[in-house]
Structure formats: structure tokens, C-alpha cells
## 1
Amino acid sequence: MRFRSSAVLLTVAALVASACSFGGGTDGAIDGDPGDCVVVDVSVSSEKIQLMIELAEEFNRSGAEVDGTCIFVRPQSKASGLGATLLAEGWDENTDGPRPVIWSPASSAWGAVLNQRLDDDGQPALVGDGAPFMVTPLVIAMPEPMAQALGWPDTEVGWSDILELATSGEGWSAYGHPEWGEFRLGKTNPNFSTSGLSALIAQTYAAADKSENLSSEDLERPAVVEFGQGVESAVVHYGDTTLTFMNNWFRADQRGAALGYVAAAAVEEKSVIDYNRGDPDGKLEAGEEPRPPRVKLVAIYPREGTLYSDNPLFIVDGDWVDAAQKTAAQAFIDFLQLEENQQKVLEFGFRPGNPSVPLAAPISAEFGVDPAQPSTLLEVPEPAVMTGLLDLWQEQRKGARVTLLLDVSGSMGELGDRESGETKLDLAKRAIIESLDEFAADDQLALYTFTDDGQSTIPLIVEVVPMGPASGNAAAIERVLGGLFPQSGTPLYEATQVLYQQSLDGYDSERINALVVLSDGRNDDGSAGNDQQQLQTLLDMLARGSEGQGSRPVRVFPIAYGGDADFPVLEAIAESAASAVYDASDPRSISKVFAEVVSNF
Amino acid sequence: MAGKRLGAFVMAAVLVLAAVGIRRWIDSGGEVTLGGTPSPVYCDPLVGEACKAAFPDREVRIEAPGATLDRLLDSRDGESLLWVTADVWVEILQTERARLSRGAVVSSVSDPVASTPLVLVGGATLTDQCPIPSWECLADGPDGLDVGLDSRDSTVGLLSQGQLVTGFLGTPTFASNDLQSLEYRQWRTQSGISEGSATTRALDRMLTAVGTFDVAPAALADWQQLGRTDMSSHTPPDAGSDIVIVVAAIGAAGGSSGDLEAELVERDWLPGGGSSAAGPSAGVLEALRVEQTN
């Protein structure tokens, strides 16, 4: 579960943590005035923020004290990698929220990453051993009929079956279901997501036919490389969070098309439970009713073995944490370990970290999971091997064919950052340039802009850099971006439709095909009369293209940029294309958001 | 001996002071005051004038109920106030605090003080496009009918949203999941319905800037107070429950609803509760309130 040695974590740390620094910001939090209480700020990974807030609220009401002073626990959500980076490089309370007294990433591995980075900088460790708050294993989620077609539950299924499905050329025909078409896999980017990282480790162990001691030599074996390439070839897109897959899957299910989106996704067991409860993102919003899916997902515990996310509770040994806060933090951790609270962990679909609390519902077949599994656990590789794994993934991940469509309407000339004086267009250009390094050399990349001439209703769609390998186009894009300037209207619907059609025409089945649309406003093409018809045509076109086995899925990732972006329309576009919308309503967040978008490729 | 006498005297003084304090607390309706100042009364702008008249001796703050709700949802420090607003807002507060695992802040809610129906106000264009003006007809978005709605942080605005979506979905018993469907999103983006700011009612805009809207929802009592005859109010056949005003005590706030009922009745409200009908749940209304529309 943890790095066995921290000797060579440096590179892994730099690679993983810096990449993960884009993987999400602060979302949920407890607001309110702590008064004169001892404040315990808790930074937790996003999947457990809801539970942590609930428990913190209870703890705060319980009257717990340190030397007669009340305790006020204040959780905030922070992606694990981002937390590691901030703790290692400097936590700015103005932009990143309060520095944590307790840090709870998804996995202990992040604690090792943090300490190694600090060690490399000649600084003392910030975290020791963290009590596991709760655990959840990585599984391969599959619609039940598809799992059954593979012989589940009588036959154990594993990564080698995934490989076979991905590479046989027959897809589901080989299993008697030609109507299900080719095999499609959902898998997150291991540089951003703990699930993605765990899946990469697990599939590589399977390729090496090992459950421990994965070595750098193993990574170089042609069979291991081929195995990885084969699995990755079935990926529909990557991304920073598994929730994108779960939400799209659920929406498809509600339309009766659960078998037409992806056939499998590497996620945590908890996500399968949430999905089968009818709450795919694990968070019931106001007025939301859990509605069980039409087609249940089941958790496949790969027969080759899997890994746990152990959600450690680290008390941070920083100079901003005083003795009273440490005592208060320990009191909260003790509270979290109480049996009644560990029961709550169960309610949220996790397995308790307190061994005295037995597994119970919802860790049960009713919700598609098996409390007796996993039967084989994998060892987290040595840091040097981790580095090698991530390097290897960069080479073997599925290639991408991406069109960037940039809004250069007049409003892009508005101030985006009051402090720096940069316009929205300036910030967007910078974000694009910063993201270019994330593309592999042989990814295909193009840049288009859209606006109109302000006089007619004809959209002005300009091919700024034609489709070509990123190795050459990245520099070309960086060069021409400097010459772009804000112009006139925002023919959003027509420009998106034209470029989507173009992406379809150039569809490459060996790659992730995607269109990234960055827009800061509502559709404005000088003719409002046909807007609704245009939008309807676009949405129908996207929906037709993203579903069905004969489809050529081009994923459209809209970015709602600035406060005037038409978020509902962009969200509808994303959902029609079975992808995800990204919110950059604060223009200053565009670099972070753009990096999240690019994590899909 | 002297020590005992002194102790008895101190004890007696404490008891007397305590008795006086308890008497004053009872007289104030069980209200905790700070420095002798009663808790403020937060009033929904819909009943703002009546509220001021009903609570002449208290600090009355007129605030959009959505803003009051937001503060009370986050409240952790035992804020005390009286909240005069439509019953749905109090229900949202209670439901949402429970969903978010936050402690209850509503200590009591009065019986319904007064009520009035939510109606559609419009002129000839409304009845041309919707011969029987209904929420379903508005949701269908007939060509040439400009619909104006109030801010979702207002009572009329929020209830109108609930009714409009009910009209679109064809059922009042929907969940916020239904607001995620593609069909709903498409309808939202294409309905062309305008939503007003927190400070300007759609009804006022329609009446003062002719041509802005053809129809706007309103509280019937409000419309009647205006005394306009150039447009008509219509009670939709698919109307939801009436707007029902209550007084909620938040925290340790106390006090009665004073002369509120009389003041509202004077302003064309009906005493007590009104007609009730199935409608969206409090959670759904909250989802509609915070729905990202742009």
C-alpha cells in the first residue's frame, strides 16, 4: 500500500505531484465563524469531502475541547496531488485556503511523495504514519450483462480479458454479442487521478505476471509494453476524474443506452456502489432522488490483483500547527475511528479503516460489489519503477487527434485579470501555450478561431494551424497565438457544428478524437431568429455521433470561459457528445482548467 | 455568622435578579436579547410594507428571501431573528440544513398568517397565444409571447420557476435529477424566458416599459393593490399552492406575528392559509433557485 522505499521518489514526486496540481481545487468546505475555538483545518481528497463535512459538523457539535477550549474542525476539498504539491512548495492561504492541520489524500502514497520532495529540498518530513480512515479497492466496473458475457461471476475476469477484448479486432462478437460492437474502456489520467495511477500499476503487474517486486526491467519487456498499448488502445478518453465516466454512463443508462457508452471503467469500488444506488457522483444534491440504473454495474476485482486507496489521516508537522491543534486533531481522528462513525464510512460506500467494524451493506452483491474480494493485493512499486511506469504510459497511452476552437469575439478583449492587466484572450493564449507540452509528439493537433465580421451572419472560422503532428504544430500554435486579437461576434453553434463535422470527416479510429471549444459568451451570429434551430441541429448531431456501435465518437469538451459564458448551452453540448463541460468562469483559472481538459488526451 | 448572612444576601439577590430576568424573558415571548435589543425581523419584500407596519418597535430589514436563506444555511453562530416570508422558504431552510447535516436553526414556525394566489398577469397577447393562460402553455413557449419572471431569490420568482418547470415536465412531483436531462436543458436554453434582477420585478417592468413582456407572474394581492385595469390577472388551471406567509423564529428569537395578519389583509391578502396543491418539493425548489442559468 505504501512506497517501500523513499530513496528515489524524487522524480515520481515531481512528475506526479506537479501534474496532479491541476487536478482540482477547493470545492466543498465548512464556512462559518470558529469563534475562539482551536481550529483544525482538514484538507481531504474530493471523494470524501461530503462524509468529512458531515462528521466534522457532528464533532463540532459534540462539545469536544482541548484544555477547556472548544474545537472547530473545518474540512476543505483538495485533490491529493495538489495537496502534496502545495505542502511541498508552499501553501498560499490567500489562494489555496487554510493550511491543513490534518491532510487526508486518497492514498498513503501521496504522503511518501510529499516527504520525498521535502527531503530533496533539505526540509524535514511533514507527515508520519497516517491512520487509514477508510479503504476502497480499485475495480473494473462493467455493466452486468457485459461482465456475464465474460463468464463473470463464475469465472474470474482480469486485465488480460480487457486486453483480449481491446485487441482481438472482434470486440464483443468474440463473446457472442456483435450488437455491442467494439470494446470501449474508461480510464483516467494517472498523472491526475489516483484511480488512473492504480489502474496503470495493476495492468502493468498483470502484464508482467507478478503481484510484487515490479521492476524497471519488467517495464522494458516487449510483452509488457505491448500489453499496455493494447489496453490503452480501447480508451475512449482519459481525464482528471472518474466521475466524468460515471455521470456519462448514468445519463446513457437513463436513455437506455448504458451498453453504448463504455463497456468498462477503472474506478474505485465506492463508485460502483454510488452508481447502483442511483447517485453516480456520490453526492445527493438538493431535491435529488437516487434512481437506480436500468442496467446495474458490477465490480470486477481483477484476478491478477488490485490496490487499495487507504485515505490516511496525517497530522501535519508544520510550523503553523501548534500543540493544541495537534491535540485537537488527534481528538478528531479518534472521533473518526469510533465505531458509530466508521459505520457512516460504510454508509458512504467505503470500507471502514477501523478493523473492529465488520463489513456490511452496502458492501454487498446488491450494490454490485463483493465483500470477500479482492483476493489478491498488489504491492505499490518502488519509486523508480513508478517513474518508469508514468514515462512508459506517456509513450503507450492512446494517441489523440484534437482540434482547439478558440473564441476570438470582441468580448475576449475584456479584462481577465485586474492585477496583471491581461485580457481574457491573453489568459487563454497563455493557457493554450502552457498545455502544449502535455501533448505527445505524434498527437495530431489543430487550432481554429471563430468570430464573425460584424456585418453579415456568416461565421468567420479561421484555420490558424492545420491538423498535424504536435511535434511541429505546438511551436506553430505558440507562434501564431501572439497574432490573434479580439474581433466581433460569437457564432458558437455554427462554428462548433462546422468543426465537429470536420473532426468527423477526419476521424481516426486509432486515436481519441476531440474538439475543445473555448467560448466566453452566448451564441451571437447577427441573426437570433434561427438560434434555437441551430442549437437543436447541433445537439442532435452530437448525440447521434456519440452513441451506437457504428458511431465515430468525437468528444466535444466545451470550456465556459468568463462570467458571461453560456454554461447551460455548453453543458448541453458536452452531454450530447458524452464528454464533460469545464467551468472557467473566473478567467484567472483558465490555465488550471485547460490543463484539466488536456488531461483527457 | 457574618459570612453566612452575606452568603444568604448574595443568594437572595441572585434569585431576585434571576426571577426578574425570567419574567422579562417570558414577557418578550421567550426571546433572548442582546443589550436589551430584540432580534431583528427579516421581511420578504413581498410583504415589506405590511411588515414594517406590523413591527413598529422592532428593527425591520427588508431582504430578498434567497439572501436570507443563504445566510441561514451557513449560519453556525446561533443567529436570532424573526423571518417573515413564504412558507416554502422556511421549508427549504429546514430541508437543506438537514441534507447538509447542519443543526436546526428554526425554533418555531407560526400558523399561516395570510395567503394570496400566484397569478399570471398579461394583456391581449397573452390570451391570443394562450387562450386559457396556464403554466403549461407558457412552458410550451408560444411564438411571440415574451414571458418575464422575477429573480429566483424572490418568492414570486421561485414559485413561478417551480410552476413553469411543472408545466414543462407535466408533473409537479419531479426531482432535481429531472433537471439534468438533455430535454430539460434544451428547453431551458431555448425557452427564451427572461429572468429579472433581484431588485426589479418583471411585473413592474412589463407595466412601465410597454413591450418588454407580454406576461409576468405576480402575487394576486400585489396586482390588486396596483389597481390597473389595462391588463388582467389569470389564475392558471394548473396553479400550484397559494403563497402562504408565515413567521419563523430563528435561534432564540421570540415574539408574535403582531399585527401582520391585519396589515396584510388590509393589503388584499386573505387571512390564514390558502389553497394547497401538489408542487415541487422544497429540495427541488432549492435546486431551481441555484440552477446555473448562465
## 2
Amino acid sequence: MDPARRILPLILVWPLLAVGAAAPAGPDRAWSALADNRPQDVLRQLRRDADSRADRLAWAAARIGAQPATDANMREAEAVLAELESGTDELAAEAAYLRARIYQLHLNEPDFAQAAQLFAELARRRPESHWAQLGLVKLGLLKLYLLPDLTDPGSDRLAAAEALLPRIHEPLLRRDLELQIGQAGIVLHQPQARFLPHLIAAAQTGGITGTAREDLIVQIGVLSERAGDWARAREYFERYLAEYPTNVRAFTIRKKLGEVSHRLAQEGGA
Amino acid sequence: MKKRRSRYLGLGLLVAGYAFALFWVFTRSTPVVSSRPVTIRIAHWQIEKGPPDGVDAIIKRYEELNPRVKVEQVLVPGRVYNQWMRTNLVGATGADLIEYGVWLDGLTDIPARYFEPITDEMMRPNPYNKGTALEHVPWVQTFTDGLLNQRVNAPDPGQFYAVTLTEVSERLFCNQELLRTITGTNRMPATFADLRVVFEQIRAYAARTGRPIYAMAGARDNASWLMQYLLQGAMMQRSQRNDRHGNLAVYPWEELGQYLEGRWSYGSPEVRAGLTMMREVSVNMKPGFVQSLRDAATQEFLRGDAVFIFAGTWDGTSLRRLATFPIAVYRFPQPTRDDPVMGPYFYGAFADGGGGTAMEFYLNKSSAHPKEAIDFMHFMTSVEGNQLFTDHSGWLPSIREVKIPSDIEAYRTPLDCYSFGAEYMTGMGSTVAAAVMRNLYLLTETHGSVDQFVNAMEAAMPEAVRTDLRKEISNRTIIVRPQDVGIMAAAALSRRAPQNGSLPLARERLESSQTQSEGLMLQLGRQLEVAGAAK
């Protein structure tokens, strides 16, 4: 056979081989690919039964993130995570957290009770791990809205979530749960005194981004005004106008600020 | 001999053709290999007069500053925009920067699926503002409204997704000559009651002269904007009462949830008042106008067949450039406390645009050049870039410190009126919007009535509201699920590169916004659960 003819297929196939070789390999590249929302690349490169535990965790994360997001794929990821969570390192905590999230969010028919149990177990075994702390926030959401049973009118949903707060030592995560308890208090028609302190605690921690931050400042001002706490209402209205002077709500807030300042003056609190 | 001559003729033609081709290739055509290695595309539907010129001016200057980047403006007519966007995004062939609006029918899942958040960039100053008063101001705070509308519509409450190019408001554009001919004066009605008098004068003039002149140019788009405006005003008191969260703003999903809780309906007296006023205006439009789109109303106004047109400032440049008569721009006359229809529900002057910014551009997740696309976003929303846009488009700027030409100063809405955001119409969700537009003729046509519209809407709403709430949850699920993997990845990468401070920050923000989104999804789910199935 003509040597040129033998080389030709190699020349044609070479670019494909080169592309394959350049794809992610190892945990660093795998996590970079996952950060770029390319789970399929990771699944092509890593094996489910890879030698390294870090590779297996990346594979499981990719399995969760890849399409199609079927229950069968989630079960496959869960099996790997269940094996990884038996360790004592941070990777085990990550695996346990992700496993609970599968039950909470990724299955087509979520199993909230199972998710809650897994979050609780993680917090018991590794209370100071970031993933256990984050899991307590997610557990709080489950307790606020879904557990044990929506039809039970007597259950104090806020109390169940509040009980988790002392166990969350990371300030930003604690803030997030405070905010959720506060918002749930409104949705669940709780008395204002029950939920407003949580909103204030969240605002005092700070660091919230997006609309949520702006809303929270307005919210505390308005709810304080409704409760007759003119001083706090004024504090938050002034803060809002200082930070968002051109927002469309500024006109209404200026009016409200005038009213609460008048009240304070009447009561000698100005 | 003859054969030889024809051979020379053929050869001559061949040489001439070749010479012409050479001339064309070297003087007229695009180079085979671009001198600019990166090409990004920006797509939008604002093909009316003005915006394409504004974007062209931005591109020209940007390309001067960035010789390695070429920017192409893709103009897509509004009629096909939805289909164009969906098919291109699905096929991963969409432009790098794409205009999107939350009200676009059937596209509420688009941001979650196809757009990339730009939250981190929003927290930092815009590099193109160096040397201006905004040099050290975080990008988000350089927008006149702090990107309020965009944030309200963001699929994820803790994230920023888009930049805006212009501030919008709604105005009453007036054919001054025609108004003077009919009423004998240039004076504009100051209140809604005055407007009723002018409507009467115009009807009388049309009957007397036989000229088919209407007070208002009509089309379903213009009618829809007017109805949103009037309903928002009529519902101001009730919006305030229903604001249990104390946000001084009612979000679309709250309007839906409050409907399920029975806190408002199209039969509520305030809504009926708003609808009554809408009917008062719409009977002064050409019959059958709901079949027409905004171009028809524009043409009717430009022909001199209508004294006024209620339009967004986005139509201002087209109207002014194309009209053969002087156009004056006014704020729509509002009802007062003693108005016989709206008076009992009067709360105060309500916003006619509210200073919100629009023409939102999102970053396509599939962009091959996200870095350059974000850089172009920076430039177009810098003081220099946005000034170019304003000067060449005749549209208001979205960026502070940009000088507003005197002829469009009237488009600005000063902070002198209330706004609770809720418009109780098409902004709630695509299913409700479709029901409103489907039934609009029952309110606006000659033989229609408020009752007919209310009855039709009350029949449609229970199911439509539930459908839109379910869509809202589903769209947020699309965003929230992949974030678990993103959070894990950010944590893993920051462990491996502890010197990179942005990674832990990105993880913290993602965790926080994910929790907020999940909380909201659960709130919406609870509202559906409590309301039960539609009866």
C-alpha cells in the first residue's frame, strides 16, 4: 500500500484525537468544567469507579448536573455519594450534602423526609463542616414549609426552624436562615413580633445582594411603621433613601419618612 | 470570420468579467480573513427609528477602542423575535448579547435556561467610567434606577442578569395643529375630566365635518399600555392594602398569589373603575383597533387621523422623525380625588413609566466570547457609550451623568408619583396575559362592556393563575438545580487556589441566592397548595 495512503487516515483522525486529549482530566479540570456548566465533559473523562475519591465525587456531581436529569441518573450518583460519605474528611461531608440534596431537589418526586434525615445525620457527625452548616439552612426550609405535614394547623413551623439557628455558626448561613424564617412568618400569617426580629437580624448581618437587600430595608421600615416603632421605621427609611435615592419607591418612602418623623416629633422622640 | 469574432467577444467578456471581479474583491467585499479576530453579535427588536443608530454609534466607537473586536448589530423584527430567539438559543447559535423582556409571550423559561448572571461584575466599577464621576461607583449603581426592573424580573433574586440601555416612560403625544383646529386652543387637558371634554369636542368635530378623526390612535399594543397604566392607578390603594410583605412593591407572583387568596379580582370595585376609564378612552379609538399592532396606530396618528397617541417613549423618535406636523409630548392627564369614576379609590398621582430602565441585554450562556461580550456591555452602559446612544437614538439614557438633550427632557418621569409595580394585566404571567389580550375586545369594542370583560376574565383566571404560578416554580427549579453543582465546583476550586478571593465570594453569593430562590419556590408552592385546584 502507498505509504501516503496509510498516513492519510491518521492525518484526518488526528484532530479528533487532539481534541480528546485536551479535554478535562483530573479533579482541577473537572471542577473547572463543572463551574463552566460542562458536566458532559467530565462524564466523558472520569469514570464512576475512578481510583481517587475526589474524581468519584466530581463524577457524581457531573452526573447530577448532566442532562437528561432522570431519576435513574440521580440514583446512580447517589450510590457513589453514599459510598464516599462514609469517610471522615471534608470530601465525605460534601458527598453527604449532595446526597441529601438529591432527595430534596433533584428527584422528580422528592423525598423530603429522607432529605431531612440525611441533613440531620450530617450535622450530627460533622457539626462544624461548612456542608453540614449549609445543610441546616436547607433543613430549615424543609421545616418551614414541608415537614412534617402542611395540613397540620397546630404545628409551629417557625419554632422548628428557629431551633436550628444556634447550631449554625457561620454568620452568612445563619443570616440566610434568619431571612427565610422572617419571610415564612409573613407567608404563614404569623404575628409580626414573631418574624420581624429575624428580618432585622438578617439585615444587620448584611452582605445580601440583588433585590433581596433592597426589599429587606424597605420591609423592615414598613413593618416597623405598622408596629408603631417610629424610630426604627425612620432609621430604615433614611437608610433606603441614602442607598437608593433614584429608585421608584423613593417617592413613597419620602412620604412615609415625613409621616414617621412627624409622629416621632409628636411623641418627643425626634 | 463570424465565428472568430464571436470567439474574441467571448474572450473579451471573460476578461472584463475577471477584471470586474478583481475590482469588486479588492475594493468592495469583506476581507476573507477578518483583521479583527473576535466577532460578537448583539441582537434586539428595537428596529424603530432611533435605537439602531444609537447602537451603531456605540459600536463604531467601541471598535475604535478595541481593534481586535468586531461587533455586529442584528436587527430582528418584533413579529418574529420570539421564534427567532427560541430557535437560536436552542441551537446554540444565538447572538452573544440578546435583548429579552419578561413579558414576551411563552418565553419565561429563557433566562433560566440560556442566560448567564453577571452579578460579580455588577458589584465592581465599570472600567469605561474611568475619569468620570462614576469612576469608583459599582456598575449597578450607575444605572438611574439601580436596575430595579431587571432585578424584579431576574430569575434568581440574588443575581443580576442584564444591563439596560434606556429609561422608558409612557406619554401622550399630541398633534398640536389638529388639537388647535378642533378645540381652538393649544392648551392640553390637565386632568382626566378635562380629557373627557376634549374627547367630546373631537367627536362633535368629526360628526360635523364628516372627517374620520378619532381622539386616540388605536392598536392593541397602545391599548394594552394604557390599560396597564390605568389599572395600576386604580389599584393603588388595594395594592397598598395587599402589601403584606411591606415591600411597597407587588411582584408578579404576589399578584397571582393574592388573586388565589381572594384579595383582588377583575370584579373588585377598583379594577372595575380602571376598566371603566379604559372603556371611556377606547371608545374614542377607531373601531376594530384591537386587531392592529402599534405600527397601525403610529400610521393613523401620522396621517392626521387622530389627535393623540398614547405610546411609550420608545416610539418618540419614530413619531418625531416621520411626522409632518409639530408634536407635543405630555404626561397623560390623571383622574383627581373628585373624579366620578376613580375618585373613591384615589390614592395620589401614579407613575407613568416610573423611571425604570429597559432594553435589557442578557449574556448568552453559549457565547463563544463572554469576556468580550461583557466588555461591550460595560462600554455601552458607560457614560461615554450611553451618551452616544442617547444622542443618536433620541431615547433617554439609562446611566447617571449622561446629558439629556432638551428635546427629550419631557420623557423623564420625575420622582413625583406613587408606584407599586403591579399592573394587574399582562405582567403577571404569560397565561394570564394571553387571557387578557384574548378578551380585550369585550371591553373596548363598541358593543362591549366592563361586565363582559370581567365575566370572561373571571372564568379564565382561576386556571390561568395556577398555570402561571406553576410555571414560575418550574422556571426557578431550572435555575436552582444546577447551582448545587456550581456551589460544589466553586468550593473545590477555591480550596485549590486559596489566593483567589473571588471564588469563596462567588460560592457564598450562589449559596445565598439559591436559598432565596428555594424559599420563594416554597412560598409559591404553598400558595398553590392552600388554594387547591381550580373550581
